[in-house]
Every structure is written in structure tokens, then in C-alpha cells.
């Protein structure tokens, strides 16, 4: 696809609505490491999670389109040291994530998407 957001590559997250059961698609910053991806529910620093976060918590089977490549993956929320490692990767990818995390006034969920 070659899509970008603020000059950075994005992936398309395909997920199933927790209430509706409908297929949804969300463009998110591309944060990839050794075949796994992270998606960060910062919602641009808003006080609430984006809707997609509730969807993948309820239905963790997701699909990522990274350019022309499509991956079927499973989402899991991460915590502790693993979470911090992914946050560092996120900051390297898109520095504003640090401000979003700080300004949100909540624990910002971070999910790792990996092969099932």
C-alpha cells in the first residue's frame, strides 16, 4: 500500500467489532520487530482508548496489512518489561507517542500482534 501518516509508514489493522461483530479496519503506525507488530491504544493522547482496542481485547484474531503483505496474527496485551521494550521501539518509530502516553492520564494499552 505504501500509506504513511505524518511521513511514517502505517499498517492496516483488520479487526472484528466487539459488539457489532462487523469487520473494521484501522490505520495505525507501523511498529514491527522480528515479525511481530505492536499497536498502541494512545488515541492521540485522549482520555479514553480507541474503539479498536476494545475490539481486539474481545476478539484477538486480527489481520495486519503491511504494504502488499498480509499477516493473520493474534493480539495480546503486554505489561512490565516487555511493554517497556515495545514502548522504546514505538518512540523510535514515532516520537510523539511519548507525549501521548504522558498526556493521556491513563494507562495506555499496548498490544503485541504475533503469529498464532
From TrEMBL:
NCBIfam families per record: hi_GC_TIGR00026 (TIGR00026)
Catalytic reaction annotation: oxidized coenzyme F420-(gamma-L-Glu)(n) + a quinol + H(+) = reduced coenzyme F420-(gamma-L-Glu)(n) + a quinone
Gene3D superfamilies per the UniProt record, alphabetical: Electron Transport, Fmn-binding Protein, Chain A
Protein name, UniProt field: Nitroreductase family deazaflavin-dependent oxidoreductase
Cellular component terms per the entry's GO annotation: plasma membrane
A GO molecular-function descriptor: oxidoreductase activity
Family: Belongs to the F420H(2)-dependent quinone reductase family.
Amino acid at each position: 500500500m505504501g500509506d504513511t501518516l505524518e511521513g511514517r509508514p502505517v499498517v492496516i489493522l483488520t479487526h472484528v467489532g466487539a459488539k457489532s461483530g462487523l469487520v473494521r479496519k484501522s490505520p495505525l503506525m507501523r511498529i514491527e520487530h522480528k515479525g511481530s507488530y505492536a499497536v498502541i491504544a494512545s488515541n492521540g493522547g485522549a482520555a479514553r482508548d480507541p474503539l479498536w482496542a476494545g475490539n481486539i481485547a474481545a476478539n484477538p484474531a486480527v489481520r495486519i496489512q503491511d504494504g502488499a503483505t498480509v499477516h493473520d496474527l493474534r493480539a495480546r496485551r503486554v505489561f512490565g518489561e516487555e511493554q517497556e521494550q515495545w514502548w522504546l521501539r514505538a518512540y523510535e518509530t514515532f516520537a510523539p507517542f511519548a507525549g501521548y502516553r504522558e498526556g493521556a492520564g491513563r494507562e495506555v494499552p499496548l498490544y503485541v500482534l504475533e503469529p498464532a
